[in-house]
Predict the structure.
Amino acid sequence: MGSRAKRSTLASEQRVGARSPRGCAARYCSDVAGDDSIRIRRATRADAEQLAHGVIDGVEDYPSFAPPGWTAPSFEAELKHVREALADTDVCCLVADSESGLVGQITLLPAARASHPVDDSSLAHVSNLVVRRDYWGVGLASVLHRAALQAADARGFTQLRLFVAAGQARARRFYEREGWLPAGDPFADPIWGLTFIEYRHRLRDRG
């Protein structure tokens, strides 16, 4: 959630590459599903449709825990949102790019610019950690997650937050394994029509 809700997957190693402008990490990943052609890079406007499809696919299982009658956002609405985000220099969207297209994504932006804004320049908001289903269980989510943390650190953030649907047990387990902690009580989001839990993650002090 934030830009859109959160979904996830699992753990592997990455080979560190260069950093792109404005602290958005650009990484080249080996050992992801045995496919060394996957590369983590910053998204461009040309990726908008694939990103929007990824978000819609990522909420495919939400009806299993959502209230009766719940419906996902439309592709058209998500595409509009993605295009607006990609045009914003404060938004850092990282994608996992392979020969078969985009297989994962994660977005980072100042919490002051996200939904449920917080006026704290040290706080980043993470959203849309999505991995294509045929890449679940191979470590790509952890690679994307690490890239986002490195991008946040490069941009000067010291802590991060995200929102996870309370019924999304798989995503909650993933984030808790990665060191995220629940913060505050669950809250109802009227736009999504779901109950969410806020999680926080503190980056290591820059000593």
